[in-house]
Amino acid sequence: VTGAGKTTVGRALANALGWEFHDADELHSEESRRKMRCGIALDDVDRAPWLNAIRKLIQGMLTEGRSGVVACSALKQSYRDEIVVDPNLVKVVYLKGSKDVIAQRLRGRTGHFMNPDLLQSQIDTLEEPRDAIVVDILGAPEAIVREIRSRLGI
Asked: Taking CA atoms, which of 11, 55, 66, 80 is between 20 and 30 Å from 86?
């Protein structure tokens, strides 16, 4: 969900591995960004073009033999099923944390289009992933990166 540390941890993981980093928030349409800024939750229709863009990004990296980290809030299993184009090559990492911890982080965040009031809607939508690497967000980003690398075996 928003505020879990996807961009911070994703960027740190990509840097540690020498891989590309992509923040899927950059793939949202301006209309979707406007909705989120105004505190309007996206629905599946809003998310469909975004998920398609993420899928194309991942497919392109795989086709070209590039390794990368893509940070995104793929909240439903159906979203993850869509973007994980090859489960043998694409792994999902779930940064898991309590609503209280995440809400506290969001109160201190500035400059992001996502309205913190949407946290509950994201929590309500979230379907915890199956077959994901689950990492608690309470650790420092460096510790979380070490845990992810260990769990990936890299």
From this structure: 11
3-state secondary structure of 22: strand
**Contact (CB, 8 A) for 42 and 75:** no
Q: How far apart are the C-alpha atoms of 44 and 26, rounded to whole Å?
A: 18
CATH number at 6-152: 3.40.50.300
Residue 52: how many other CB atoms lie within 10 Å: 13
Q: What is the pTM of this model?
A: 0.89
**DSSP code of 42?**
P
The per-residue pLDDT for range 70-119, each reduced to its tens digit, is 999 999 999 999 999 999 999 999 999 999 998 888 776 665 555 667 78
**Do 49 and 18 contact (CB within 8 A), yes or no?**
no
Q: What is d(CA 27, CA 32) in angstroms, rounded to the nearest whole number?
A: 10
Q: Give the residues across from 22 on adjacent strands.
A: 70
